[in-house]
Amino acid sequence: MSPSLNTPTSGSSKDEGGGVSPQNKGSWSSFLKSIASFNGDLSSMTAPPFILGTLSLTEFSAYWTQHPSVFVAPAAEKDPAKRALLVLKWFLSTLKPSYSTRNDKYGSEKKPLNPFLGELFLGKWEDEAGTTELVSEQVSHHPPVTAYCIQNAKHGIKLEGYNGQKASFSRTIHIKQIGHAVLTITPPDNPSAPAETYLITLPNIHIEGLIYGKPFVELNGCTYISSSTGYTSKIDYSGKGWVSGKKNSFTATLYPTGKEKDVLYSVEGQWPEAFTIREGAGKHGTVIDNYNSRNAPVTPLIVPPLEQQDPWEANRAWDKVIRAITKGDMDTTNAEKSKIENAQREYRKKEQSEGREWERRFFNRAEKAEEWWESLAKSIGERIEADKTGGVWRFDKAKAETARRPFHDGLSPTG
């Protein structure tokens, strides 16, 4: 059997439907009332099965690299300012797949499946950029945190990072993303030199369309890309207002670090649609590139067929749940989810009684960030929040080189 192709997807977008069905309108209203009166982190709430999607959060890491050629492009640019611009272009190209793909497929945003500790999602992209490999692992459950590493050895480029989410309600659902990504590039004109580093912060999210039963993601605030080459990118997000403004809008500038008014390049547009890149500041700058998010070719992610996957890999682990959601069988959905959840509780109890913790297969935990991270973060006012993510998570190359299926011999996510 040939490998399955994901972008990523685990179930049928046709069968999953869009919005909230008429028979579930009452339950949807009750759910909205419950979150409005809930105190604390909404991610700890149990969502009604009918708004569940068929993707696990570990699969979301693949959204970083649906366009591998755009991902590796900075590694071929010899000018450091233009290289920083290509990093910004790549980051902006990831926003549509990361925050709009599910709405496009299903008609509304769906609540992803909450990964269990140790859950894995592994795959690769193969195209003119060569082979780009993905490792995604749920490294913490309380708080929930997903770590990932994406690398293309041919071009000497690697992205790694981790993120958790804290959700709250005030008129709508607000989601603060906690964590960061780090892109490293081997300098194209000096392969023996230390790799360049780009610290990438994550946008905050709020959910619109709740009252109509068709939720969608809007980004707000600003994010940064701070580089070791002396350039910083700032991205400002703005949603559609009551009177004016376009949905999913943003503006971005790239400037020498510490000189925000000395704009070298500027970008503006709508992240799910298209954006324009100019040399210089604002609309008076010279247009040098246009990017159409909807027409950009997507390279499918290759993952092994279910029978070749490890029991701890997301598609296989959630297979029965996914099938039940796709069929609209909520009783089976609940039953199969409970099997995983109950088994995980038993694993945690046993680990606690034995004075040990779960062994991560691809990542290690540190208590604080590295000096280079602190240096890049200082110029943009970023700080590590290790207490909210169970630590600082870093990819372990030695672990990855020895990791083989079965990843947890003799153990199953369902006990």
Describe this structure in words.
This protein is α+β, with helices and mostly antiparallel strands. Helix content is 23%, strand content 33%. The protein is built from 11 helices and 19 strands. Strands 4, 5, 6, 7, 8, 9, 10, 11, 12, 13, 14, 15 and 16 form a 13-stranded antiparallel β-sheet that branches. Strands 1-17 form a two-stranded antiparallel ribbon. A two-stranded parallel sheet has the order 2-3. Strand 13 and strand 14 form a beta hairpin. The longest helix has 24 residues. The radius of gyration is 21 Å and the shape is globular.
Name the descriptors.
two-stranded antiparallel ribbon, single chain, 415 residues, globular, 13-stranded antiparallel β-sheet, alpha+beta
- Helix percentage range: 10-25%
| Mean pLDDT rating | 89
The largest pleated sheet is described as: 13 strands, antiparallel
Q: What low-confidence regions span 5 or more consecutive residues with pLDDT below 50?
A: 1-7, 9-17
Total helices: the number is 11
The radius of gyration over CA amounts to: 21 Å
Helix/strand order, N-terminal first: EHHEHHHHEEEEEEEEEEEEEEEHHHEHEH
The fraction of residues assigned to DSSP E strands is: 25-35%
Which of globular, elongated, flat, extended, rod-shaped describes the shape? globular
Secondary-structure-derived class: alpha+beta
N- and C-termini, Cα separation: 28 Å
Q: How many β-strand stretches?
A: 19
Give a nutshell description of this structure.
This protein is of the alpha+beta class and 415 residues long. It is built from eleven helices and 19 strands. Strands 4, 5, 6, 7, 8, 9, 10, 11, 12, 13, 14, 15 and 16 form a 13-stranded antiparallel β-sheet that branches. Strands 1-17 form a two-stranded antiparallel ribbon.
